[in-house]
Amino acid sequence: MKAFIILFLIFLGGCQLADEQPTQVDLNNMDEIYEKIIELSESKTCSNSSNWKFTAIGSKPCGGPIGYIAYSNEINEKEFLDLVERYTKLQAEYNQKNNMASDCMYVVSPTRVVCENGKPVFQYD
């Protein structure tokens, strides 16, 4: 009987680890996608603000984006926006699956991008 209980506890613990593993995989996948997003975003020097746009990125647990990211229209825009969308969806799924919480504060959208010292900077009206 003791052996059965021990085996049951080992099995139960193994199931719990199996359940936790996808969360780690999700985080690793999200990190890889985010790194690609940043790499693309920073791949061009900002010298003409008319060549720059921005988009919302990420998902707060209570809704809305975690922020905004600037990108040059000289990169592969479709690839970039697809990565941002995939990252945002993964983060929303992760938040829901793990019952995440946040400050729920609204993140104000920038009105434009300007170039300062070769980097894009958001301006707000």
What's the layout of helices and strands?
Layout: H1 2-41, E1 52-57, E2 67-72, H2 77-97, E3 112-116, E4 119-123
Antiparallel strand pairs: 1-2, 3-4
Radius of gyration: 20 Å
- The termini sit apart by 72 Å
Q: What is the tally of beta strands? A: 4
What would the average pLDDT be, to the nearest integer?
85
Sketch the major β-sheet: 2 strands, antiparallel
What is the count of helical runs? Answer: 2
- Topology as H/E string? HEEHEE
What is the overall shape?
globular
Helix-and-strand structural type: alpha+beta
Description:
With 125 residues, the protein is an alpha+beta fold. Helix content is 49%, strand content 18%. It is built from 2 helices and 4 strands; from the N terminus they run αββαββ. Strand 3 (112-116) and strand 4 (119-123) form a beta hairpin. Helix 1 packs antiparallel against helix 2 (77-97). The longest helix is centred in the first third of the chain and has 40 residues, at 2-41. The radius of gyration is 20 Å and the shape is globular. It starts with a helix and ends with a strand.
